[in-house]
Amino acid sequence: MSVVRLLVAYDGTSFAGFQSQPAQRTVQGALEDALAQVANRPVRTKAAGRTDAGVHALGQVVTFSDESLDADMVMRAMPALLPSDIGVVDAQDGPEDFESRRSAKSRSYVYLLWCHEAAHPMYRKYSLRMREALDVRKINEALRHVIGTHDFTSFGRVRPDQSPERTILRAAAVDDSPFVRIEVTGQSFLHQMVRSIVGTALEIGAGRKDVSFMRDALVARNRQAAGQVAPPHGLTLTGVAYDGIAWPRLVPVSWPWSDAMCADDVVRCA
Amino acid sequence: MSVVRLLVAYDGTSFAGFQSQPAQRTVQGALEDALAQVANRPVRTKAAGRTDAGVHALGQVVTFSDESLDADMVMRAMPALLPSDIGVVDAQDGPEDFESRRSAKSRSYVYLLWCHEAAHPMYRKYSLRMREALDVRKINEALRHVIGTHDFTSFGRVRPDQSPERTILRAAAVDDSPFVRIEVTGQSFLHQMVRSIVGTALEIGAGRKDVSFMRDALVARNRQAAGQVAPPHGLTLTGVAYDGIAWPRLVPVSWPWSDAMCADDVVRCA
Fold first, then answer.
1. Would you say residue A77 lies in a domain?
2. Residues B127, B85 share a domain
3. Is A229 found in the same domain as A112?
4. Total number of domains constituting chain B
């Protein structure tokens, strides 16, 4: 029986996280409800990354097996069955041994910061508003220390059956004023690890802590040594990488509301 | 007494339009409530463009005069007094004869289309989902006919005291897959004119009508000759131009969730 893999996007605002929980609205619950309607029986799914309550996704990968369902059927049926805050962006039939979590080579997250005293009405649910100026160069200096394989005890919740060691492949802050985004790609992450790294980086970027605070926190192997966990609504799982899988590219080049009048003439542009 | 001019952004989803109406939640009502709290008396505002219910703004311009208020006070007070779906992005003190509506040289709108069968969870309230493929070249051919000064009777509601003549300075469709945006800048617009032009353009872009449909509709001077009015939630007022006014530039270059891993390696990206 082949495995169907789904590329899933969601607005995490109104979900109690990805993972099914009794009497809670979850992404997994909504997906499994919709799939069960097509299959006429329960369908169990697995995700590449179990995002927390309030965290969003543009490139979550979810797999399931059901002998009555294939990728085409799911792709056709989902738009009518899913709530508007979840979208199945692509569906593919894969080999039996494909597993969204274990087959994944890396996960990429973007933490979005909106640096202005007024809220941005379109991105208020997807970005953290920073009223303080951020020193992006300092954030990047600090982020360099978490790249590589380290014991991340200070930056995440470690379950008793888990190793605290994780590998971060890339971590960088990009200034696209008035947005700043912190991009983190790792093989895998501890629970709350991205938000904990971001929270620590923001202490440094806002000037409340020295650049050395990141490395000091890392070597301390103590949850109390790191900065606060950044709130979930700024975080989005942007993609999961696998060997040999190509998804449709759904990333526009420019800001959706860019317009030529703005590019030509700053005077008329907000 | 100087005039204070505000650059205002809002998510139009939960407003019954810009203009104050009894017992309705409006942008003007929310702004005037907040300003009245600072001034301790009623404050009356005027806007460059009275957007319809459901239409958004990133660069609306609103003016008012009150001897007890200046730009700095308003800028400091607004974040705490406004609901999160409105943001005062900038405030400036201007000359007494400045008037948001009459001083405006042009208004720019972007109509955002999301071309994919699955909804985009982050932009579902700000874009129209198109399940049909759009021919952007044909849309641009059609839009060329509305550029210039014309009688736009076919594309808008004309009040008895109004001329149906309007001047469009620029109209173009830009393909930034999976978004397509239709950008329209004009000196001023009739009621529903941008959405009526967009609706007509979409009939052509989707192949339901020939490119000549736009010009035929224009010369007919008959509301029935145009396509349907496109729904309000795809439309955003992006800016208003005045002689000699510079606003802060709040337009990022790239998509907020762009990330370097995506740019380098299509495989891992949604």
1. yes
2. no
3. yes
4. 2
Interface residue of B235, B243, B250 to substitute, partner A, most A CBs within 10 Å: B250
The answer to whether residues A59 and A131 belong to one domain is no
In a domain, B121, yes or no: yes
Is there a single domain that holds both residue B188 and residue B142? Answer: yes
Taking contacts as CB-CB distances below 8 angstroms, the residues of chain B near A147 are none
Catalytic residue, candidates A52, A90, A175, A259: A52
For the question of residue A93 being annotated catalytic, the response is: no
Q: Shortest CA distance to B73 belongs to which of B102, B98, B39?
A: B39
| Rounded distance between C-alpha atoms, residue B36 and residue B23, angstroms | 18
Strands (E), chain B: 3-10, 46-47, 56-64, 86-94, 106-114, 128-129, 148-151, 165-176, 179-186, 235-241
**Nearest CB neighbour to A256, from listed B181, B262, B269:** B181
With a CB cutoff of 8 Å and minimum separation 6, the contacts of B30 are B15, B82, B83, B86
The per-residue pLDDT string of chain A (270 residues; one tens digit each, 9 = 90 and over) reads 789 999 999 999 999 999 999 999 999 999 999 999 999 999 999 999 999 999 999 999 999 999 999 999 999 999 999 999 999 999 999 999 998 999 999 999 999 999 998 889 999 999 999 988 999 999 999 999 999 999 999 999 999 999 999 999 999 999 999 999 999 999 999 999 999 999 999 999 999 999 999 999 999 999 999 999 999 999 999 999 999 898 887 889 899 998 876 554 433 444
Cβ B225 vs Cβ B217: under 8 Å: yes
Name which of A14, A257, A262, A264 to mutate to probe chain B: the one with the most chain B Cβ atoms within 10 A of its Cβ. Answer: A257
Alpha carbon A249 to chain centroid, angstroms: 17
Place of tokens 């979005």: A112
In a domain, B263, yes or no: no
* B219 and B113 part of one domain: yes
Measured CA to CA, the distance from residue B107 to residue B48 in angstroms comes to: 8
What's the angle, vertex CA B11, arms to CA B6 and CA B12, rounded to 5? 100
Range of the domain at A218: 106-236
Considering CB atoms only, which of A118, A122, A255 is closest to B88?
A: A118
